[in-house]
Design goal:
By secondary structure, the protein is mainly α. The chain has a single domain (18-179), classed as Hypothetical Protein Ta1238, Chain: A. The chain is built from six helices and four strands; from the N terminus they run ββααααβααβ. The chain has helices at residues 25-46, 49-73, 78-81, 89-105, 119-144, 149-172; strands at 12-15, 18-21, 113-114, 178-179. The protein is elongated. It starts with 11 loop residues before the first strand and ends in a 10-residue tail after the last strand. Pathway: Cofactor biosynthesis; adenosylcobalamin biosynthesis; adenosylcobalamin from cob(II)yrinate a,c-diamide: step 2/7.
Length: 189
């Protein structure tokens, strides 16, 4: 089987139920989610089983859910498709539980922190920023057509998860977060 189809050589791609331009808002949204999924795979490969078994499992589940989220956005006419979104409020609630558990390991924040520390933490921060972009692209899409609202909630919460996980990766590795020194105290505990 050839991996190339030549069907996109004129700048169009297939979505569920039709074809659109490769720079269509729908393609931008699920394409950014795909980019995020690749970075999550990288983070997963950096998390060793000894110290990060829970994160490895969570990241693997998130990768599957990102495919689901992209699939939920890939319908040319979602309002006419009769599709049932795969991303649900239960996934958002589960992310919140994971965030709470990770935050319990992290020291309190007083100032903004610089993305960095360990390679795993840095990668989680990149996941966070790409997730925010995916959320923005999905909101742009939602201005044009119907989008499952749980997809936006999921991406919003997922970026919070990556922030908490990045800090936990540093904590478990004995590496302190670096505060943004020019900032004032912005968080009250």
């Amino acid at each position: 089987m050839a991996i190339y189809t030549r069907s996109g050589d004129r700048g169009e791609t297939s979505v569920i139920g039709g074809r659109v331009s490769k720079d269509d808002a729908r393609v931008e949204a699920y394409g950014t989610i795909d980019e995020l999924n690749s970075l999550v795979g990288q983070a997963h490969s950096l998390a060793d089983s000894e110290h990060f078994a829970d994160l490895r499992q969570q990241l693997l589940e998130i990768q599957h859910e990102l495919f689901d989220c992209g699939s939920d956005l890939a319908y040319a006419k979602p309002e006419d498709s009769g599709m049932t979104p795969k991303v649900t409020s239960a996934l958002v609630e589960r992310l919140e539980k994971w965030i709470d558990a990770l935050q319990a390991e992290n020291p309190p924040l007083e100032k903004f922190i610089l993305p960095g520390g360990t390679l795993l933490s840095s990668t989680m921060h990149v996941c966070r920023t790409v997730c925010r972009r995916a959320e923005r692209r999905t909101i742009t899409l939602a201005r044009e057509t119907a989008v499952p609202p749980e997809s936006i909630r999921y991406l919003n919460r997922l970026s919070d998860y990556f922030f908490a996980a990045a800090r936990t990766a540093n904590v478990r590795s004995g590496v302190a977060d670096v505060e943004y020194v020019r900032g004032s105290r912005v968080f009250r505990n």
